[in-house]
Amino acid sequence: ETIRVGFIPVGDCLQLYVAEEMGYFAEEGITVEKTPLKGGSLIAMAVEAGELDAGWSNTVSLVMAEDREFDFAILAPGAFETESHREHSLLVAKGSTITRFTDLKGKTVAINALGNINEIAITALAEENGMDSSTIKLVEVPFPQMLGALESGAVDAVLTLEPFVTLGKSSGARILEPAALKSYGDRFLIAAWFAKRTWMQEHPVIAEGFRRAVLKASEFIETNPAKAREMLTRHTKLSLELAQSITLPYFAQSIEDSDIQRIIDLTAKFSFIKKPFSAKRLLETSTQ
Amino acid sequence: MFSIRSMQIAFIKNNRTSFIMEDVNFDVPQGHFLSIVGPSGCGKTSLLRCMAGLDQPSSGSIRFNNTQITSPSQGVTMVFQDYGNSLFPWKTVLGNVLFGMNRSTATKQQKIATAMGHLASVGLASHSRHHPWELSGGMQQRLAIARALASGAECLLMDEPFASLDAQTRADLEDLLLRIWADGERTVVFVTHDVDEAIYLSDSILVLGGSPTTVQRTVENTLARPRHQLETRANPLFSDLRTTIHGLLVSGTSQCA
Amino acid sequence: MFSIRSMQIAFIKNNRTSFIMEDVNFDVPQGHFLSIVGPSGCGKTSLLRCMAGLDQPSSGSIRFNNTQITSPSQGVTMVFQDYGNSLFPWKTVLGNVLFGMNRSTATKQQKIATAMGHLASVGLASHSRHHPWELSGGMQQRLAIARALASGAECLLMDEPFASLDAQTRADLEDLLLRIWADGERTVVFVTHDVDEAIYLSDSILVLGGSPTTVQRTVENTLARPRHQLETRANPLFSDLRTTIHGLLVSGTSQCA
Amino acid sequence: MRRADMRRINWHGIMFCVAIAAAWELLSTLQIVSPRLFPPLSLILSHLIDLTVSGTLPQVLAQTLLRMLAGLIAASVVMVPLGIWAGRSQRLWLLISPTVESLRSLPPALVILPAMLLLGIGNSMKIFAVFFAAAFPLLLNTMDGVRAIPLMFIDTARTLRTGNRTMLFEVVVPAAAPGIFSGLKSAVPIAFIVAILAEMIGGTDGIGHFLMKSQRSFDIPQMYAATFATAVGGGVLAVILNCVESACLVWYSGWKRFSGRDCPPFPATNHRNTTKDRS
Amino acid sequence: MRMSLSPRCGGYAFAAMLILVWWAGTASNVLARGQIPSPGDVLLALTDDPRLFINAIFKTVRQTMIAFAIGAAAGLTLGLCHGVFPTLRNTTGPCIEGLRPLPSIALIPIAIVFVGMGDSLNVTIAAFACAWPIFINTHDGVKGINPLLFDTAFTIGITRRRLFQSVILQAALPMAMTGLRIGLGIAFAVEVSVEMVIPKTGIGALATTAALSGHNALLYATIAAAAMTGLMLNQAFRWTEFALLRNYGPQWSKRT
Ligand SMILES: Nc1ncnc2c1ncn2[C@@H]1O[C@H](COP(=O)(O)OP(=O)(O)OP(=O)(O)O)[C@@H](O)[C@H]1O
Ligand SMILES: Nc1ncnc2c1ncn2[C@@H]1O[C@H](COP(=O)(O)OP(=O)(O)OP(=O)(O)O)[C@@H](O)[C@H]1O
Ligand SMILES: [Mg+2]
Ligand SMILES: [Mg+2]
């Protein structure tokens, strides 16, 4: 039995590499056909079109898809962010005068995509700090170009993720506290493996097998981080040195409602979706 | 073979119509050799293009073998005044002639033999593998003639085909044309500025003139055939004809001015 | 003015060199009218192109006013055999003539007046706002001539400029050319296939022939000037010259075959 | 005659468009392909109308068009003269060809990366990307247009002792104009596409960003509506360009003897009334 | 050939000079301080694992060729047909003008619906993109054919098929070759772009994965590899072009 899986070739999809290398998929009797894609929305469309069976997507995208009545549900937990596994950070340039979040007033901040998880995070943070979020100018810059934009002075701060946080720090950039995605809570789901509900109903065995393999991989990563990081170098172009020093997301064994609910609420609050809904909806694998 | 009745040719320029030819009537019987003479710009080329079916007259009728001509008809071929641009630059000299024989059903071998024969008769055999842009003006013109002859069309429309040739080559080709015409029962319509040439070659000479151009007269030429470059030209009838035609041309032009 | 010494023209085709002209020597003094005659394909156009500085001979020297020619030099202009392609289709008839006067320092008004004068003298005044592609072959040729005349060059190289013209127009233009030549102390090198025309116009006639082509002879023409279409041609000296040149041409060609 | 041609309504074209539209609607409403990803045309059109009326689409389209124009003009100003020069001088072409040939097959998406570092993330980067993409079709077409000039034109001008300026502006440019226009016709859609692409990769406005935003928020009908808007924008550009071309190259169609029609005549088609009209 | 040797060397010298400028820029830290690697680093990245690049280039070139073949077939056919049949042009023209400016990358989601995610996706999109310049140039080439050539062909009495083969195809060839040359570049560029979005294999995939992993030297090495591949493809094309156009007279056969 094969399952066609779309993913983004970054460290976040570590579960997939580990499960493959450790033979967890084989143990479950499934073969995985991996398709790397650059953007999460593209994965979602390919899954909708039936060209992929499952895919990787950030939570906000899943929330927005649900709002648009796409038939997606979470197949297996993906990457979580917690305080000790902080993957996303706001960086400012070496020698920048910005020291607190409120200093960002009137400044330009680069995020990778407008209208998605990072814009909501900044907006929420601004509100929590008593600022008018419109005073922070958000511009779109792809992750790999952010450090360049920061160094050349085109932007004042960047909301970036690993490995660029580590790379940035090594070239002198400074992390701006608090954590960029702090508004989503102390522990929340950044991204997850998802599939169409109809597909899950039609292929319960494969779906379950995939889920178990991914969870086994999560366990492996948590217990053997060094080995997992080594595997990372084989599936991305990270150098071994960099792979050993970056912060990995947290790979939990199960998803609680609270891991998602705050994200849904904030998305609704800032009108990226029409109205909030219960996190359970994303976790229900059967169509209502 | 050709029958032209009250034909008119006009061009539209800036919404103004200028009439080039008006009320042109003449016939070209099968197997006839007709020459057309007339001042520069009087519409000879336009007339020939209409007869070839490339253009349509503004009014009047042109019939070929009793059918109205609306498109180039099989059996009529034309040698253009602008010979240089009518050769296919990407084909060799031989290729251009072979292209003219595309209707023939002969084998490739035979075709090449025939084509080479025609090239030899216009003195281009040694240039068969050159490209047209490697030929002199006169050679290009001879190539265009060879291609038309090779096409085997029963009717040849020739627009000043010998204009760029020296006297000797010209005389040779005149005789070649007459030979081919006599052999194959072809019909030839021949535009020229050389009145002597027109007389030497043809059965009758159509003199154009006036403004708009009309047929001044069709001069019948009863000089005996076969003709000889020296003898025929020495014939007193020849000079008579020449005088007549020159007279017609002068009166036509004066009328025009 | 021109002095050509042991000039050779050769073309390379498929790594084989074919020699077109060899050991050509002649002079064209200032104010001279030289005609060149020779069989088709003997290299007249190539020779003229070299004299115009458009091409370079393979060896030998061409000097104009005692300087070696390497590029088109001021004071020399050429009328091409392929007249149709030498007119700029994006310019009107008048525009084409004005283009020929691009070196003149006169005011726009004056230029237009001069240009119109030249157009009138070749019978194209009424077509000044047409485009070249709206003209007949002969008209195009006359336009090319008008442009060359308007350019005011002291030396004119003319490659069969009257080939597409009827006898009357041709005679008129011959006389026009002679008038202009006599007025302006110009030098003219005139290629033609019409031996009569060559004799009628020129001071001397260069007869080319042989294979590779060489100068057969330079025939001096002592016919009195000014010349008249009928009288000059009736002169016995005229027939003598014609016989001489025809003889030279035939012997040159037979040598060539 | 030309004007009458333009006024004539192109029924064939309209019918063909209607047929395609009907096929689309059927494909979607019969759920042959997922209507979420391939929504019915009627839905897209209603979005298109809403977005147009609200002014959103015209605004983003205008932003993109301005960027495109800036890049395109820059490319024309640099590349047409360079192309003319390179077409006239084999030496110059040999000098720049390795650089040109290796640069021109770089995907604009890759070029944007270093461009971002050098030019930042603002307009100049996007305009540069447009410039870069439009430059090479313009350069190559201009160059080949110049090379294709019949040698006789050049020879004629030379024997008339034409100065460099006159040669350039009165001979080379008009004679190469058909080639230059071909270059423009190839370059304009490419410039438009790259302007959109640059806005998709890193932008805050323009139709490319709007497209990307719709895609990311799974607003598929809106995405299609935006795609339609690009098609309309590009179509309008093409029409404008064709009009400019036929205005500039009147002589060309006349020279080709088929004024008003630019098709080679097949014996069966009745083309021959074109120059000689019945009167 | 012998004569053109020195200016050609000049061309490569010119390119080398640009690289030198790049090197100077990085060495003196003028160029974006550390974000742009020096030519030396790029060379190291290139030679570090040559097999990686060779495989990627091979794959991309193969896909490009397939896409180019399809796009060229479509562009040539459409251009010729539009040049020849005015009715067809009037019918399909408006729709085609609308399709032309569609950004290939934005078409990916739509294309996924119809052709799936495999290699055929890259090929379809690259073929779509490269067909346009070929189409335009072919169409203009047909439009620009000297009408006397048609007149000649008609009076010779050739059949429609022969007219097409021997006159239209041949006479439009020089212009079509220009279109093909531009089209080949675009096919390659778009193939790489699609690979960048769906980074499975090929040069584009290498670029995306390198970028996402923050490996700048590798990213620029990939750009350099893409440039060299483009140069290579183009050189191969020029040979073909020269062979095809040598019969067309001095201005076409003089090309290098
Ligand atoms: N580009 C070329 N390549 C090879 N051979 C050429 C080229 N141009 C001309 N020739 C050859 O040079 C010879 C002379 O050509 P040229 O045009 O000078 O003759 P011409 O005397 O002007 O003839 P005509 O009276 O027919 O115009 C011809 O045999 C021709 O085949
Ligand atoms: N496309 C056109 N548009 C407008 N007028 C034209 C066009 N083509 C030809 N003419 C005009 O038609 C007239 C006749 O032209 P045509 O070419 O038939 O003359 P011709 O008798 O062949 O002259 P020649 O002996 O000089 O070749 C000319 O006055 C010319 O100006
Ligand atoms: Mg004529
Ligand atoms: Mg000649």
Could you walk me through the main structural features you see in this protein, from its secondary elements to its overall organization?
The complex is a heteropentamer, with one copy of chain A (288 residues), two copies of chain B (257 residues), one copy of chain D (279 residues) and one copy of chain E (256 residues). Chain A is α/β, with parallel strands linked by helices and 288 residues long. Helices cover 41% and strands 20% of the residues of chain A. In chain A, helix 4 (59-67) crosses helix 12. The longest helix of chain A is centred in the C-terminal third of the chain and has 20 residues, at 204-223. In chain A, 58% of the residues are buried. Chain B is globular, with a radius of gyration of 18 Å. The radius of gyration of chain D is 23 Å and the shape is globular. In chain D, helix 3 crosses helix 11, helix 8 (151-159) packs across helix 9 and helix 9 packs parallel to helix 10. The mean pLDDT of chain E is 82. Helix content of chain E is 81%, strand content 0%. Chain E is an all-alpha fold and 256 residues long. Classes of the chains: A alpha/beta (288), B alpha/beta (257), D mainly alpha (279), E mainly alpha (256). The interface between D and E is large, with 85 and 92 residues. The structure holds adenosine-5'-triphosphate (2 copies) and magnesium ion (2 copies).
